[in-house]
C-alpha cells in the first residue's frame, strides 16, 4: 500500500507507455537506430495513410464487410448453439467434451480447404473467420448459460410466471452478460480470422495490403495497414466493453473481478 | 458409459457421411474426396521422405518455440501475479493483446530473420509467450493464501514453500496452462509456415490447397488434427488425475 | 372418552379454519442410483393464521415437502389441500414462497424485484402501473427498507436482501407463506433480528406461515407449533405445541419453558438415525 503512494497510478503508466511507444516509433528510425525498412517512422506511416487513403479505406470496407458476415455466423450461431448445448443437459454431456477436444485443432489448417471450395474472394474469409470464432463463442456461451441459478426459475414459477414469461423475464435477462461476452469474443475473433485469412490468400482487404506490400518490401505501406488493423481491433474491444458495461450494470459488483471476466474462460490461438 | 457409446456413434455417423456422400456423388468428390481415399493418401504420404522431412521441421519449430516461450512467459506471468503494481499496470494490456491478430507482426519477423527456421520459432514463441504469461499468472493467483499462511506459520523456508505449496497446488493449472500454450504454439507455427516458408507441414498444406490436391490436403488436415487432439487428450487426462484431490 | 375427543376435535375444526391439509403424502425420487424414498406418509394440518415450523435432519425432505405445498413439484401419493382446494400448479394468489438464498433477480432493483410478481400479471390485471408501484413501495416500507428501493441486490447486505425477498413474497398478499430456511445464510445476530421482524410483519398481516429451519432456537422462538421430521425417508415424528405468549421477546429465550421445548426437539432429532 505504501508503494501506491510513491508510484503513479497504473492507468497513468499505461498512457505513458503508449506515448513512449509512439515516440520511439518516430525517433528510432529517424535517428537511424533501425533502418526504415525494418521500422518506418510513425510520420512516414501516417503520411502513407494520408496519401493512399482511398486504397486503405476501400480495403477497410472489404474487411469490415467480411468481419460483419463472419460475426453473424459466429455470434448468431455460436450464441444460439451455446445456449442450446449449455441449456439441455443431455446434449451438453454428449457434445461439450467433443467440442473441447476439437478446440485443440488449429483451425487455420482448414483455410486452404475453404479457398479451394469458395475461391479467394470474401466467401472463403467469411467461412473461415465465422467457423474460427464460432466454437469459442459457443463454448463460452454454453459455460455462461450453466452459471444461471436454477433457483431463478423456481422462484419465477412460484410467483406464477408462465413459460413465456420465464423465458423473457428471467432466462433472457439472466443470460445477457453471457451474450455480451460472446459478442465481444466473437467480434474480436472474427477480426483476427479475417485478417489472418486475408494475409494468407486474398485479392482484397487490409490483411491483403499487409502481404502485398511486404512482398514488394514497401515497409511504410505494410505498417500503415498494420496500424489500421491495430486500431480496428482495439476500437472494437473498447466499444464492446463500453456497451457491455452500460447494458449490464448489475453484474459488475458482487463477484470477484476475475469471475466477472468471461474472456478468462476461453482463449483462442491466432 | 452410455454417453461414450452415443459419442462414438456420432463420430461413426460423421465419418460414414464423409465416406458415403462423396462416394455416391451426393457431394462433389472433387471438393470432398471420400474418407477412404483420403486415408489411403495419408498412408501413402507417410511413406514419403519429403513428408518425413516436413514433419521433422515442423516438430522442431514447435518444440524450440515452446521451450523458449514457456520459461519466458512463466517468469513474466509470475512477475505480474506476485507484484500487485505490475499486475495492475499490465493485466489490462494483456486483454487488449488477445483481441489483436498477432499474425500482422509476421512481416516484421520475416524482415528481421528472413524466411527461415528462426523466423517461425521467433514468431511462435512471441505469440505463445502472452498465453503462458496469462495462464501462469492465473495459476499463481489460484494458490490459496491460506496454504501460504499455514506453511509460513510452520516455519517453512522459501524453497520449501515453493516446492511444497506452490508447485503441488498449482499442478493441475500448470498442466492446463501448458496444454493451452501448446495449442497456441502449434497454431502459430502453422500460420507462419502457411504464410511464407520453404519447409514444414504448413508449407505442404498451403501448397496442396493452391494446387487443388484435395486428397493430400485432407490427409494433411487429418494428420495434424489427430496429433493435436492426441496431445490435448493426453494432457487433459493427466490434468484430471492431478485434480482429483483438488477441491 | 372417544366421543368426547371427537367432539373436541370438531369444535376445534370449527373454530379454526384449516389453511393447509396434507393427508398420507409419500414421495419417491427416481435417482441415478435407484429409487430415493424422500417422504413417507406425511399427514399434517395447519390452521389459518398459524405459524408452523418444520425441523429435521439435513436431506430428510423438508424442501421437497415445501415445494409440493407450493405446487412447484407434484407428489407421488397423498393429497394436499390448500384452503380446501388441491394445488397442482403454483398459485401466487394462495401461496407465496421465500427461498433460502434470497434468489432476487440481480438485474432488477429492490423495488423492481418486489414488483416483479405483480408485473407478471400484467395485462390480466386491472391494476395500473402506479398502483403496482405504490403497493411495492408499501411492502418495502413494511420490511423497513424505505429509501433502498433503487439499489441493486449486490448493493444490499444479506439481511436486507432477505427483507426484499420477504416483501416480494408478501406483495401479492397470499394467505399462506412458505419459507425454506430463509435466514440460513445470515449471521446469528442478523438472524435473530430478522426472526423478530418476521413476527412483527406476521402479526400485522395474519398470514399462515410454514417455516423450515435448522436452528432449534429459531424454531421455538417463532412457532405456534414445531413439526419434527425423521431422517430420510422423512416422516413426522413429533408435533410440539409452543405455548409461549405472544408477542415473543428475546428475554423468553432465557426461560425454563423455552429451554425445555428446545431440549425436547433436540432429543427427537437426535433419536433419528
Ligand atoms: N429432484 C430430485 N431428484 C432426486 N432426488 C432428489 C431431488 N430433490 C431432492 N432429492 C433427494 O431427496 C432427499 C430430500 O431432499 P430435500 O432437499 O427435500 O431435503 P431437505 O430436508 O430440504 O435437506 P436440507 O436440510 O439439506 O435442505 C435428499 O436425499 C435429496 O438428495
Ligand atoms: Mg432444503
Mean pLDDT over the full residue set of chain B: 86
Largest sheet of chain B: none
Rg on CA atoms of chain B, Å: 22 Å
CATH class descriptor name of chain B? Mainly Alpha
Q: How can the largest sheet of chain C be summarized?
A: 6 strands, mixed
Q: Number of DSSP helices of chain C?
A: 8
- Most extensive chain-chain interface: A-B, 59 and 61 residues
CATH superfamily of chain B: MetI-like
CATH architecture of chain B: Orthogonal Bundle
**How would you describe the shape of chain C?**
globular
Structure class of chain C: alpha/beta
- The H/E string of chain B reads HHHHHHHHHH
How many domains comprise the coordinates of chain B?
1
Q: N-to-C SSE series of chain C?
A: HEEEHEEHHHEHEHEEH
Query: Count the strands of chain C?
Result: 9
Overall shape of chain B: globular
Give the number of DSSP strands of chain B.
0
CATH topology of chain B: MetI-like fold
The average pLDDT score of chain C comes to: 87
Report the helical percentage of chain C. Answer: 25-40%
Please tell me about this protein's structure.
Chain A is mainly α. Chain A has helices at 3-6, 10-30, 42-51, 53-87, 89-102, 111-118, 122-146, 150-158, 163-200, 206-215, 219-247. Chain A is globular and about 75 Å long. Chain B is 82% helix and 0% strand. Chain B contains 10 helices and no strands. The longest helix of chain B is centred in the C-terminal third of the chain and has 38 residues, at 158-195. Helices cover 37% and strands 23% of the residues of chain C. The structure holds adenosine-5'-triphosphate and magnesium ion (MG). The site of magnesium ion has 3 residues of chain C, from helix 2.
Task: Describe the structure using short key phrases.
heterotrimer, A: mainly alpha, 11 helices, C: 273 residues, alpha/beta, three-stranded antiparallel beta sheet, 9 strands, binds adenosine-5'-triphosphate, binds magnesium ion
Amino acid at each position: 500500500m505504501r508503494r501506491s503512494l510513491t508510484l503513479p497510478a497504473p492507468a497513468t503508466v499505461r498512457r505513458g507507455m503508449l506515448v513512449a511507444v509512439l515516440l520511439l516509433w518516430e525517433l528510432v528510425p529517424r535517428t537511424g537506430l533501425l533502418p526504415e525498412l525494418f521500422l518506418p517512422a510513425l510520420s512516414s506511416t501516417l503520411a502513407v495513410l494520408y496519401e493512399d487513403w482511398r486504397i486503405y479505406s476501400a480495403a477497410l470496407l472489404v474487411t469490415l464487410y467480411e468481419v460483419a458476415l463472419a460475426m453473424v455466423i459466429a455470434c448468431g450461431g455460436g450464441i444460439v448453439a451455446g445456449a442450446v448445448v449449455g441449456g439441455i443437459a443431455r446434449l451438453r454431456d454428449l457434445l461439450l467434451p467433443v467440442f473441447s477436444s476439437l478446440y485443440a485443432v488449429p483451425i487455420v489448417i482448414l483455410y486452404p480447404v475453404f479457398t479451394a471450395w469458395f475461391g479467394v474472394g470474401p466467401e472463403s474469409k467469411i467461412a473461415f473467420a465465422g467457423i474460427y470464432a464460432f466454437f469459442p463463442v459457443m463454448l463460452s456461451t454454453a459455460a455462461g448459460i450453466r452459471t444461471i441459478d436454477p433457483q431463478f426459475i423456481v422462484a419465477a414459477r412460484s410467483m406464477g410466471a408462465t413459460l413465456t414469461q420465464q423465458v423473457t423475464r428471467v432466462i433472457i435477462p439472466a443470460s445477457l452478460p453471457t451474450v455480451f461476452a460472446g459478442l465481444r469474443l466473437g467480434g474480436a475473433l472474427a477480426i483476427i480470422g479475417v485478417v489472418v485469412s486475408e494475409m494468407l490468400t486474398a485479392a482484397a482487404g487490409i490483411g491483403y495490403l499487409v502481404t502485398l506490400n511486404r512482398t514488394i518490401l514497401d515497409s511504410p505501406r505494410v505498417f500503415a495497414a498494420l496500424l489500421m488493423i491495430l486500431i480496428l481491433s482495439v476500437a472494437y474491444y473498447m466499444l464492446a466493453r463500453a456497451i457491455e458495461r452500460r447494458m449490464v450494470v448489475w453484474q459488475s459488483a458482487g463477484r470477484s473481478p476475475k469471475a466477472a471476466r468471461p474472456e478468462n474462460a476461453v482463449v483462442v490461438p491466432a | 458409459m452410455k454417453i461414450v457409446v452415443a459419442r462414438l456413434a456420432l463420430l461413426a455417423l460423421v465419418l460414414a457421411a464423409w465416406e458415403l456422400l462423396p462416394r455416391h456423388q451426393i457431394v462433389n468428390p472433387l471438393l470432398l474426396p471420400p474418407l477412404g481415399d483420403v486415408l489411403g493418401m495419408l498412408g501413402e504420404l507417410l511413406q514419403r521422405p519429403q513428408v518425413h522431412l516436413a514433419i521433422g521441421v515442423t516438430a522442431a519449430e514447435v518444440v524450440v518455440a515452446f521451450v523458449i516461450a514457456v520459461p519466458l512467459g512463466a517468469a513474466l506471468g509470475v512477475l505480474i501475479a506476485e507484484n500487485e503494481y505490475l499486475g495492475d499496470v499490465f493485466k489490462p494490456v494483456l486483454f487488449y493483446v488477445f483481441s489483436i491478430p498477432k499474425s500482422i507482426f509476421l512481416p516484421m519477423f520475416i524482415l528481421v530473420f528472413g524466411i527461415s527456421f528462426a523466423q517461425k520459432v521467433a514468431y511462435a514463441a512471441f505469440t505463445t509467450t502472452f498465453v503462458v504469461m496469462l495462464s501462469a499468472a492465473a495459476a499463481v493467483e489460484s494458490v490459496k493464501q491460506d496454504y501460504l499462511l499455514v506453511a509460513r506459520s510452520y516455519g517453512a523456508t522459501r524453497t520449501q514453500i515453493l516446492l511444497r505449496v506452490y508447485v503441488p497446488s498449482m499442478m493441475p493449472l500448470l498442466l492446463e496452462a501448458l496444454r493451452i500454450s501448446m495449442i497456441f504454439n502449434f497454431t502459430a507455427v502453422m500460420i507462419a509456415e502457411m504464410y511464407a516458408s520453404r519447409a514444414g507441414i504448413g508449407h505442404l498444406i498451403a501448397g496442396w490447397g493452391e494446387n487443388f490436391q484435395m486428397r493430400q490436403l485432407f490427409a494433411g488436415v487429418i494428420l495434424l488434427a489427430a496429433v493435436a487432439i492426441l496431445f490435448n487428450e493426453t494432457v487433459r487426462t493427466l490434468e484430471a488425475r492431478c485434480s482429483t484431490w483438488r477441491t | 372418552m372417544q366421543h368426547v375427543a371427537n367432539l373436541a376435535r370438531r369444535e376445534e375444526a370449527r373454530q379454526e379454519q384449516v389453511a393447509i391439509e396434507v393427508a398420507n403424502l409419500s414421495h419417491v425420487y427416481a435417482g441415478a442410483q435407484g429409487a430415493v424414498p424422500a417422504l413417507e406418509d406425511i399427514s399434517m394440518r395447519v390452521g389459518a393464521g398459524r405459524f408452523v415450523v418444520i425441523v429435521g435432519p439435513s436431506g430428510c425432505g423438508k424442501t421437497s415437502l415445501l415445494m409440493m405445498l407450493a405446487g412447484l413439484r407434484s407428489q407421488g401419493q397423498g393429497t394436499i389441500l390448500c384452503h380446501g382446494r388441491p394445488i397442482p400448479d403454483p398459485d401466487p394468489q394462495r401461496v407465496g414462497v421465500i427461498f433460502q438464498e434470497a434468489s432476487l433477480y440481480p438485474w432488477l432493483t429492490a423495488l423492481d424485484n418486489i414488483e416483479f410478481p405483480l408485473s407478471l400479471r400484467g395485462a390480466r390485471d386491472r391494476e395500473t402501473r402506479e398502483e403496482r408501484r405504490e403497493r411495492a413501495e408499501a411492502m418495502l416500507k413494511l420490511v423497513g427498507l424505505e429509501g433502498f428501493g433503487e439499489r441493486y441486490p449486490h448493493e444490499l447486505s444479506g439481511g436486507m436482501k432477505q427483507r426484499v425477498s420477504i416483501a416480494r413474497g408478501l406483495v401479492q398478499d397470499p394467505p399462506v407463506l412458505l419459507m425454506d430456511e430463509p435466514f440460513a445464510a445470515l449471521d446469528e445476530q442478523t438472524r435473530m433480528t430478522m426472526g423478530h421482524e418476521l413476527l412483527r410483519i406476521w402479526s400485522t398481516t395474519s398470514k399462515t406461515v410454514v417455516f423450515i429451519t435448522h436452528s432449534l432456537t429459531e424454531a421455538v422462538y417463532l412457532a405456534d407449533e414445531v413439526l419434527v421430521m425423521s431422517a430420510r425417508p422423512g416422516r413426522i415424528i413429533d408435533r410440539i405445541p409452543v405455548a409461549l405468549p405472544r408477542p415473543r421477546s428475546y428475554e423468553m429465550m432465557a426461560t425454563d419453558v423455552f429451554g425445555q421445548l428446545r431440549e425436547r426437539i433436540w432429543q427427537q432429532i437426535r433419536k433419528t438415525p
